[in-house]
Amino acid sequence: MPEVLNLYEQAERSGVNPDWLRGLARAGKVPYLPAGSRMLFNPVAVTAALAELAKTYQPPRAKRQREGAHASA
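Request: output the structure for the sequence above.
Response:
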């Protein structure tokens, strides 16, 4: 039987915030097994899903200065 971890164990193993992992799972970007009110994860499947997400990750762009604001020299 494959290893199964709860949300907090998986977040710790993946080095991510549990709330962030929960959000990805609820959005369908990371596979999980609902077990009552708990979320269970297969670490191999989560690692694969995170690797795929990393391939298409675009960092947020810096906010543009507001019009009329003075630029620092």
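Strands lie at 5-6, 33-35, 38-41.
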